[in-house]
Fold this sequence. Notes:
The chain is mainly alpha-helical. The chain has 4 helices and 2 strands. Helices cover 56% and strands 10% of the residues. Strands 1-2 form a two-stranded parallel ribbon. Helix 1 (17-27) runs antiparallel to helix 2.
Amino acid sequence: MRxxxxxxxLLLPSENLEESLQILxxxxxxxxSPNRRFITSPCNEELATIVIYENGRTPKQVAQDIMNxxxxxxxxxxxx
Length: 80
Protein backbone atom coordinates (compact mmCIF):
# COMPACT_ATOMS: atom_id res chain seq x y z
CA MET A 1 0.00 0.00 0.00
CA ARG A 2 1.35 3.39 -1.00
CA UNK A 3 1.28 6.27 1.45
CA UNK A 4 0.01 9.45 -0.12
CA UNK A 5 2.67 12.06 -0.64
CA UNK A 6 1.86 14.69 -3.16
CA UNK A 7 5.27 15.30 -4.71
CA UNK A 8 8.17 12.86 -4.47
CA UNK A 9 10.76 13.70 -7.11
CA LEU A 10 13.24 11.13 -8.38
CA LEU A 11 16.11 13.08 -9.93
CA LEU A 12 18.46 11.13 -12.18
CA PRO A 13 21.19 12.25 -14.58
CA SER A 14 19.86 10.30 -17.58
CA GLU A 15 17.19 7.84 -18.68
CA ASN A 16 20.04 5.51 -19.67
CA LEU A 17 21.12 3.38 -16.68
CA GLU A 18 24.78 3.04 -17.65
CA GLU A 19 25.09 6.73 -18.48
CA SER A 20 23.54 7.64 -15.12
CA LEU A 21 25.99 5.37 -13.31
CA GLN A 22 28.95 6.92 -15.13
CA ILE A 23 27.78 10.45 -14.34
CA LEU A 24 27.15 9.67 -10.67
CA UNK A 25 30.52 7.94 -10.40
CA UNK A 26 32.29 10.96 -11.86
CA UNK A 27 30.61 13.21 -9.27
CA UNK A 28 31.47 10.96 -6.33
CA UNK A 29 34.52 11.42 -4.14
CA UNK A 30 34.11 8.15 -2.29
CA UNK A 31 32.70 4.69 -2.78
CA UNK A 32 30.13 4.94 -5.54
CA SER A 33 29.24 1.23 -5.71
CA PRO A 34 25.85 1.73 -3.95
CA ASN A 35 24.73 3.90 -6.89
CA ARG A 36 23.89 0.86 -9.04
CA ARG A 37 21.63 -0.59 -6.35
CA PHE A 38 19.91 2.77 -5.89
CA ILE A 39 19.31 3.32 -9.61
CA THR A 40 18.18 -0.23 -10.38
CA SER A 41 15.88 -0.59 -7.38
CA PRO A 42 12.25 -0.56 -8.51
CA CYS A 43 11.30 1.06 -5.19
CA ASN A 44 12.49 4.47 -6.31
CA GLU A 45 10.29 4.67 -9.37
CA GLU A 46 7.37 3.14 -7.47
CA LEU A 47 7.62 5.79 -4.76
CA ALA A 48 8.31 8.75 -7.03
CA THR A 49 5.37 10.79 -8.18
CA ILE A 50 7.64 12.71 -10.57
CA VAL A 51 10.77 11.50 -12.37
CA ILE A 52 13.13 14.14 -13.73
CA TYR A 53 16.21 13.47 -15.84
CA GLU A 54 18.91 16.16 -15.79
CA ASN A 55 20.31 15.31 -19.25
CA GLY A 56 23.02 17.98 -19.03
CA ARG A 57 20.64 20.83 -18.21
CA THR A 58 21.47 23.57 -15.73
CA PRO A 59 20.19 23.42 -12.15
CA LYS A 60 17.86 26.32 -12.95
CA GLN A 61 16.37 24.41 -15.90
CA VAL A 62 15.93 21.26 -13.78
CA ALA A 63 14.27 23.28 -11.02
CA GLN A 64 11.90 24.82 -13.55
CA ASP A 65 11.09 21.36 -14.90
CA ILE A 66 10.27 20.18 -11.38
CA MET A 67 8.04 23.18 -10.76
CA ASN A 68 6.29 22.68 -14.12
CA UNK A 69 5.67 19.00 -13.32
CA UNK A 70 4.20 19.88 -9.93
CA UNK A 71 1.95 22.52 -11.51
CA UNK A 72 0.78 20.07 -14.19
CA UNK A 73 -0.09 17.49 -11.52
CA UNK A 74 -1.96 20.14 -9.55
CA UNK A 75 -3.91 21.20 -12.64
CA UNK A 76 -4.80 17.57 -13.45
CA UNK A 77 -6.08 16.96 -9.92
CA UNK A 78 -8.22 20.10 -10.08
CA UNK A 79 -9.84 18.89 -13.33
CA UNK A 80 -10.86 15.60 -11.69
